[in-house]
Amino acid sequence: MATYKDLANLIYPNINISIDDLEKKFPKRNLKEGAMVIRFAPSPTGFLHTGSLFTSLLDCYYAHQSGGIFYIRLEDTDTKREIAGSGESLIKQLQAFDVIPDEGYLSDTEEIGAYGPYKQSNRSLIYNTCIKHLIEIGRAYPCFCSAEELQALRQEQEARKEIPGYYGKYAKYRDFPVEEAMAKIQAGDPYIIRFKSMGDHRNKISFHDEIKGDLELTENDQDIVICKSDGLPTYHFAHLVDDHFMRTTHITRGEEWLSSLPIHLELFDSIGFEHPKYAHFPVIMKVDENGNRRKLSKRKDEEAAVSYFLEQGYPKYGFIEYLLTIANSNYEAWRNENLDKDFHEFKLSFDKMSLDGALFDIAKVANISKERMAYRKAKDLALEVKEWAKTYNVPFYNHIIQDEEFFISILNIEREKEKPRKDYAKYSDIYPIISFFFDDVYQAIDKKAFEWNPTISKSDIKAVLEDYYNTMDLSLSEEEWFNSIKELATRHGFADNIKVWKKDKESYKGHVGDVSEFLRIALSGKRNSPNLYYVIQILGENKVKARIKATLDTLE
Fold this sequence. Notes:
By secondary structure, the protein is an alpha/beta fold. 45% of the residues lie in helices and 11% in strands. It folds into four domains: 4-16 and 124-281, Rossmann fold, CATH 3.40.50.620; 294-351 and 361-374, Glutamyl-tRNA Synthetase, domain 2 (Orthogonal Bundle); 378-442, no CATH class; 445-554, Arc Repressor Mutant, subunit A.
């Protein structure tokens, strides 16, 4: 009479090692008490989602603050959805936000660590050894149902208003005689491997989640697929085998996986593995135009892709701090009390994580980034912007490398002071604001941009500019310079104070603000620019005079 072991040997004739052998090959890690081993396990099926960056950032943070290990595992068993190159792309995008693994998958040709392979498609020996063991002990079996049979089964369950799935009396091959199963395999009939559940959906299980606390969940009774017809394991099975033999202590994932938890816990128990702790993170949500909360969508929201933030040039330190504000409710209070500290000094806690979906706020991302960028040293910011522009704005990059000290001086306008200017929320904001400093950009400005105030004559504008051309003095302090502009204004019939002008508009051609605007437009081609005093100081006398001369020519 054939046994389960005979069936297992027929299906896996080349598996000659045991689970005990795997336990010896991948021993428990020698880490201090309380150290967390946490993994981020992306699938190479497309771009890195902002929610995935959020999860991986926290994984890395928790592991390192506990003195543990953060590793990356590539879950590439879904070959139908795999996009070539996306695995390596994910790693590069994670690295851009300082999410760097201590071990694991780095590329299709590189990985580090003693608990690999870290790419699931290379771990078939490990999976097959565990599946063979489950078949031997009667907790897994081959299922020969066709797609048509499964569809018919679902329709029958729907008609009876019963729970859909492959379980109990609906599990056709659950108790199929071993001899007959072996005969079908030997005859070449296609099959998959299913897990034999001992659960009952009428029962409940108790479980403690690190974030959500004590939970009561419906017991699993589904005989789920653990190995597909192509020989690759399903996510449900592969992840638990990997987490056991990679010695993961905490599994972190989105709360949408809570419904699958009873399946995973039963799988761990059936094979004799101690299950790790679980922490189900809140899903990142967005309020739509109708005021409804929904998940941040790959299809609807450009900010759902991490690549959006890279392309726009949001500084990593700003974006990371924003994600920490939605990770822990006490982060902002800590930051306000520790303005001079590095955010890595903040103690992240499961207890302070939201129980509801975290709302994503792009305006808040910009505000935090603007605040952090304002306090960067000009030299440090220049290096960041240069690196970004090299990939995302080549004309900007070419201008930067022509004279990097000149670029640093531009970025330093009203920067390194107690209350610096806060002009930029991201690197892509900078070039449109400061590009006029570069002669070729200034020269290409459409002369229609010089739209003078229609209430002031061209002759008055020319007179003011000619006067400044002949009297400019770059040795003046900022206060002295502004006083000289007031004097320039009064010499040409403009009030040296806006309040004075408002009280008696008939007595003046305009006010000192108009005079400053004439200069600003002449030197930048814009009605708004960084502090005009520093613009003049950076351009220098020759360029200032050349630009005033060019402007005067347009007023002829």
